[in-house]
Amino acid sequence: FTPGDPLVSRLGLSDKTAEKGFIFCDEFEKYIFINANLSAKEKRNTIFHEAGHIELNHDFSDLCSEAKEREAQEVANELIKY
User: Fold this and answer.
1) Are 3 and 35 in contact (CB under 8 A)?
2) How many angstroms separate the CA atoms of 16 and 35, rounded?
3) Which end of the chain is more exposed for a tag (fewer CB within 10 A), N or C?
4) Residue 76 CB neighbour total at 10 angstroms
């Protein structure tokens, strides 16, 4: 996605929440959206972070909590090592 994309507001997300990336779930799949303007390294790190939310089975209706963000980043940091 790109900043200002109408998709972000249609999903009820703020520009700050969707600054680098976000997850969208439907009844069948989970999708990771990444800001197209990020560098390749930032895109990789954001994918790892969002995958951390998925791996930890975070409730996608409330991903703004500091604890969930910290946990997802811990998963990302482990993935980045490899």
Assistant:
1) yes
2) 12
3) C
4) 19
